[in-house]
Inverse folding.
């Protein structure tokens, strides 16, 4: 199995979460042991020589690939969560979504100035969640920030909402 073969394992769910949306369900890919291994190896290849110290995974599907990357790279894992889910002092950022406003939070002590950080989520659509997460992490002044996705929906042009000076990678593009 090759990287592009993983697309065959991603389920398309029409009209979810609302009419007209084609949802790309990665759970059907990650339940396959070989596909999960290939995904893991590809993520490791991208960042193995970049000195990464922290992976920030965005709730909730970003926790899966983010945890795998942290383990493979010997880095720490930091969850980016919805409001009220983290038990200590947080920093937060509101952002617009297609159907309203949402917020993302990190523990205020999660990232240091010495960190090299990869922000990870399963899918890039419009980029609003990742842009908010980037702003939060950037405010903590790490040495470097990278952005990564498993899947990118190129027709939605979400990259335009992300920082131009940041290296952005996606394993699979639709």
């Amino acid at each position: 199995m090759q990287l592009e073969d993983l697309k065959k394992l991603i389920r398309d769910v029409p009209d979810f979460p609302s009419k007209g949306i084609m949802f790309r369900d990665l759970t059907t890919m990650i339940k396959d042991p070989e596909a999960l291994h290939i995904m893991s190896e590809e993520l490791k290849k991208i960042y193995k020589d970049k000195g990464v110290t922290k992976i920030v995974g965005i709730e909730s599907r970003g926790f899966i690939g983010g945890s795998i990357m942290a383990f493979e790279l010997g880095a720490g894992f930091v969850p980016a969560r919805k409001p009220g889910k983290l038990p200590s002092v947080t920093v937060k950022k509101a952002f617009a979504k297609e159907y309203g406003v949402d917020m993302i939070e990190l523990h205020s002590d999660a990232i240091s100035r010495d960190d090299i950080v990869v922000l990870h989520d399963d899918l890039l659509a419009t980029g609003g969640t990742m842009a908010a997460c980037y702003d939060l992490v950037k405010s903590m002044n790490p040495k470097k920030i990278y952005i990564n996705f498993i899947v990118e929906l190129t027709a939605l042009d979400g990259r335009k909402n992300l920082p131009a000076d940041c290296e952005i990678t996606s394993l699979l593009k639709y």
